[in-house]
Amino acid sequence: MKRLTVSELETYSRCPMEYRLKYTMNVPSQSLPTSDNNQLAGNVLGDVVHACICSQLLYPKLSLDQIIQRHLIDRDIMRVVSEQNDIKEMCQRAIHFHKERSWINFQTEVPFVLQLGENTINGTIDFIGQDSEGWHIVDYKTDRLASHKDIPERAKSYELQMMAYAIAAQKSELAPIKDVTLLFLRLNQSVLFPITEQVMTTAQLQIREVATAIGIPNAASTKAPPCRTCPYHHNHMCWEDRLKTA
């Protein structure tokens, strides 16, 4: 039996070599290179933004500035001041998105364990909200993308991850799941994945296929891995670059 995270599934489906470098060899490369030494690594920035959005939704009477300060202090990264305005702006965009919805009920940071055949998938859903039509999943992304033109490719790479969230939520009796929304907070753009029974059936098959493939020696890379947005490629850490076209 395999125990995998949703992030592992998403990474492997995008590029087995990226998976091998990140999860098998533990090669660190959390973000693209930057000229600003005070800029937070991508995973740390995402963690702060997610935590701040969650706190603001649960405690709306607190000021967003107070919440951001608290989470930065908790992580001992108050010295990083260059991105505080960016953090606040991304949080405001997420809160505005939710204020435009008529949520009857909602849950934040929802952990799950999904059993699919012999595979156990675990992860955390950023937000699940209920309206008169059913349940809707929202996932926040803080990716540093160059322009709106990069969003379709990046959203596609997250599709399997979003489907896993929908399957997990539906199996936990939060039904019906109507859709999953990716919120790209830096560029203030959303991508909607409608959820149907056929979509769910296909997604379960894809997840099982990817989970089964993980661990197979010498797995080939996908035909067109997104090297242009891969940190290993940008940091000259992927030895398969000579075989790929970026």
Q: What is the CATH architecture annotation of the largest domain?
A: Alpha-Beta Complex
Order of helices and strands: EHHHHHEEEHHEEHH
Query: Which percent range fits the helix content?
Result: 40-55%
Q: How many strands in all? A: 6
Structural class: alpha/beta
For the report, how would you describe the main beta sheet? 6 strands, mixed
Describe the structure.
- This protein is an alpha/beta fold and 246 residues long.
- It has 2 domains: 2-29 and 102-244, Lambda Exonuclease, Chain A, CATH 3.90.320; 38-101.
- The chain is 42% helix and 21% strand.
- It contains 9 helices and 6 strands.
- The protein has helices at residues 6-14, 16-24, 42-58, 64-74, 84-99, 151-157, 159-171, 197-213, 231-234; strands at 2-5, 105-116, 119-131, 134-141, 177-184, 189-194.
- Strands 1, 2, 3, 4, 5 and 6 form a 6-stranded mixed sheet that branches.
- Strand 5 (177-184) and strand 6 (189-194) form a beta hairpin.
- Helix 1 (6-14) packs antiparallel against helix 7 (159-171) and helix 7 (159-171) packs across helix 8 (197-213).
- The longest helix is centred in the N-terminal third of the chain and has 17 residues, at 42-58.
- The protein starts with a strand and ends in a 12-residue tail after the last helix.
Helix and strand topology:
Elements (H helix, E strand, L loop, with lengths): L1 E4 H9 L1 H9 L17 H17 L5 H11 L9 H16 L5 E12 L2 E13 L2 E8 L9 H7 L1 H13 L5 E8 L4 E6 L2 H17 L17 H4 L12
Parallel strand pairs: 1-3, 4-5
Antiparallel strand pairs: 2-3, 3-4, 5-6
Keywords:
21% strand, 9 helices, 6-stranded mixed sheet, 246 residues, 2 domains, single chain, alpha/beta, Lambda Exonuclease, Chain A, globular
